[in-house]
C-alpha cells in the first residue's frame, strides 16, 4: 500500500482549469503519450470499427470529444467524415492537436475542426456557444474520466461532470464513456500493460498500486515505462480514481433518467461474452 506522500508526488503541480488537475502540465507525460499513441495507424481495428460503427448506426454526425488529449481519436473521426469539436483540460496535450490541425488546414474538415481548452466541471458554460441544439454524441474514452479524482469522498465532482456531459447531448444522442476495470485491478493489484485501443510499437510496462483511506480504495497510481526508441525508455506516473462498475452505472442511470437505451461493453464485446475485460465502455442514449 503506497504512502500518502508518494501519491501526492505522483501528480503534476500545474492546474489547467479550476477543479481539474492537469497531470500532464509539466509536458513530459504529454510528450511521451504522444509517442505512445500518436501514430494514427496504431489504433486497433476493433477500436476503430466499434466506435465508428456505433456512431454511424445511431446516425451521429456531430461529435464532442471531451477528452481529446493529443487529438488522436478526434483525428480518426474527422478522417471518417464526422464533424468534431474537441476539448481537453491540458494545454500541453492540446498543442499536438493544434499542430495537426495547422498541418492539415487545407483539408476542409480539419480547417473547420474546433479545438478548445475547457473544464469538465464548468463544461456547459465554457462551451455553451458551441452546443446549439446539442451534440449527436459526447465521448470520453481512453480511461480519461478517471483522471478526475474524488476530492470530497462523495464523487460530487464526477456527478457534476457527467451532468455537464448530459446537458451537451441532444435528445436521442449518445454518451460514450469508459474506465478501466478497476474492480479487477483492486482484486488483483495489477492492470494489463497491453492497450485494447492502440497497437503501439512502443512496449509499455505498467506498475499499479492502490491507495486505501479508511479501508476504501481512493486512488490508483500507474507507473508507465514506455520505449521511446533506440533503446531509450521514459517513465512517468499518472493517478486515477478507481471507479466501481456498479456505482458508475448507477450514477449514469440517475443522470440520464428516461434514457432510451443503456449498453455496456467489455473490450468492445457485450458483457456476457467477456471475462475480466481491461476496459468497460458505457453507451447510453439520452431520452427523446
Automatic annotation (TrEMBL):
Keyword annotations: Folate-binding, Methyltransferase, S-adenosyl-L-methionine, Transferase
Organism: Aedes albopictus
Family, similarity comment: Belongs to the class I-like SAM-binding methyltransferase superfamily. Glycine N-methyltransferase family.
First and last residue of the signal peptide: none
EC number(s) stated in the UniProt entry for this protein: 2.1.1.20
Enzyme class label: transferase
Alphabetized SUPFAM superfamilies for the sequence: S-adenosyl-L-methionine-dependent methyltransferases
Catalytic activity: glycine + S-adenosyl-L-methionine = sarcosine + S-adenosyl-L-homocysteine + H(+)
Protein's UniProt name: Glycine N-methyltransferase
Claim: Methyltransferase is one of the keywords in the record: yes
Ranges where the Methyltransferase domain occurs: 61-181
